[in-house]
Design a protein that fits this description.
Helix 6 crosses helix 7. The chain is built from 8 helices and no strands. The relative contact order is 0.14. Helix content is 71%, strand content 0%. It is mainly α.
Length: 262
């Protein structure tokens, strides 16, 4: 029987598939850490109060990258290069999700519009991250190797999502409401396409490594396309709504340290 738990258990039990999974995750998280650090360094004076929270966001993402690399080292594995077709963060940037890296590498302060765009893009991508980590937490919170990592990263992603909701609501009240909704809608549609494409590429790579049968791959491909259709016509709404979170000021303190993996 195909289930999220059984599929991930297969990936976890095989060194090559686990190495690819952790390499993809570590690469994306580390990229997010760099991007947030640059945004914090370039935040405009009008949004200076956000600086410490953006720093915390980046520190969390960088920590997640270190955690995935530590999980590899614990099994005596080295990271592998991420296939371009499975590079979620790179493909998002190509679709205009996230601030352009050329802009982040420059020394010019960002505009208030850039901060609005950054938070709107983050609200969409953090929704995906939060849901994925909640799924892993549901099935593997008690796992002897993954449990601590999954619980910590899941809590952090929930904090990131809460932060985006709260700050976007503040900016909407300051007059950016229409712009925020426009960016959220565009970002959600782009992210849904990228997530489908990355899921198909990831499934293909895992099928090759794990020797999945043709019928199994066909069923998984069909499932990915069905999820995409649902999100394209209905599910996108969960990515664009804004509500005041229960976790207020979720990024108001220092980042928690990464756990040790002996």
């Amino acid at each position: 029987m195909l289930s999220a738990r059984s599929l991930f258990q297969e990936i976890l039990d095989n060194d090559d598939s686990f190495r690819l999974f952790c390499s993809i995750a570590a690469s994306g998280e580390s990229q997010g850490g760099w991007e947030n650090a640059r945004i914090a360094a370039l935040v405009p004076d009008s949004q200076r109060r956000l600086g410490p929270k953006i720093v915390r966001h980046g520190a969390d993402e960088d920590k997640h990258g270190r955690i995935f690399n530590a999980l590899l080292r614990k099994r005596g594995l080295e990271p592998v290069e991420v296939p371009p077709e499975a590079d979620y963060t790179m493909l998002l940037e190509q679709q205009g999700i996230g601030l352009a890296h050329d802009k982040l590498r420059a020394d010019e302060p960002l505009s208030e519009y850039d901060i609005v765009a950054y938070l709107a893009h983050s609200r969409v991508t953090e929704q995906r991250a939060s849901e994925q980590m909640q799924l892993l937490r549901k099935h593997f919170a008690d796992h002897p190797d993954l449990g601590r990592a999954v619980k910590m990263i899941s809590s952090d992603e929930d904090n990131h999502l809460a932060y985006c909701h709260e700050e976007l609501l503040r900016l909407a009240a300051a007059g950016h409401g229409r712009r925020i909704q426009r960016i959220l809608r565009q970002s959600a549609m782009a992210e849904i396409r990228v997530y489908r494409d990355v899921s198909l590429a990831f499934m293909t790579q895992m099928g090759r490594i794990l020797g999945w049968s043709g019928p199994k791959i066909a069923v998984l491909r069909a499932g990915i396309h069905l999820v995409h259709l649902y999100e394209r016509f209905f599910g996108w709404r969960r990515m664009v709504t804004l509500s005041m979170p229960e976790r207020r000021d979720a990024l108001g303190g220092p980042a928690t340290p990464a756990p040790e993996f002996a």
